[in-house]
Specification:
This protein is α/β, with parallel strands linked by helices and 222 residues long. Helices cover 41% and strands 17% of the residues.
Length: 222
């Protein structure tokens, strides 16, 4: 069975990706800050501080020893802080956004690539504001733009070792948390986590090997 390393495996998007890969015969190593109690014969969970290199290196190494080298990494960890203009944003919030969104992806990609044996794929989750910046999202825009740019660098570096890298860019993902602020007219149009999971799976198959360095936009449904 191919092995998926999935960061943010207990979130709404991570859970959908986890289920999709398991349903298609993969073994999944899940990494997040807290276990959600999910169980499956081909799933193992590791608690990790995704912004701490020693934590990521240790947990990835242990998962590789237990389950086998990863063929795919899907990195879903990310988050926001309350929207503010650049002039209003505390440096602590700016650094937090870079650590959570960009540094976590950097560390996961770095240590997954070291474990991949001659082939594999890396998938990041970008964000539409990184491609179409708007006011009061400076830190988030910059961090997610960094995620997309780093993915393109990985795509170039991976060519020599048979590793592809692509970034999926949704607009608003349909989760229960987002439903709290969405309107009845907006919610049905949002991108479903299962649709993103299906795209991740495709990129992880032999059919998806021709896609490399792509920014794949998955906008809301019309």
């Amino acid at each position: 069975m191919p092995v998926l390393f999935l960061t943010g495996s207990t979130g709404a998007l991570g859970g959908a990706i986890r289920n999709t890969y398991l349903d298609n015969g993969w073994t999944v190593a899940g990494f997040s800050h807290e276990d959600d109690g999910f169980t499956h014969a081909h799933y193992r969970f590791w608690a990790v501080d995704a912004t701490n290199e020693s934590s990521v290196e240790k947990m990835f190494s242990e998962a590789s020893q237990k389950l086998g080298a990863p063929y795919a990494l899907v990195a879903t960890i990310g988050g926001v802080r309350p929207w503010k203009t650049v002039s209003e944003t505390p440096i602590e919030d700016f650094r937090f956004l870079f650590e959570l969104n960009l540094a976590s992806f950097f560390l996961s990609a770095k240590h997954a690539m070291q474990l991949m044996s001659g082939c594999g794929t890396i998938i990041s989750i970008g964000a539409e504001p990184a491609l179409s910046p708007s006011a009061k999202k400076g830190g988030y825009v910059a961090a997610k733009a960094g995620v997309i740019a780093l993915t393109k660098v990985l795509a170039e570096e991976g060519k020599a070792v048979g590793i592809t890298a692509n970034s999926i860019v949704p607009t608003v993902i349909h989760t229960k948390a987002n439903e709290e602020w969405g309107s009845p007219d907006e919610i049905p149009k949002w991108t479903k986590p299962e649709d993103i999971a299906a795209m991740c799976l495709f990129l992880s198959t032999e059919a998806g090997k021709a896609v490399n360095g792509a920014v794949i936009r998955m906008p809301n449904r019309m």
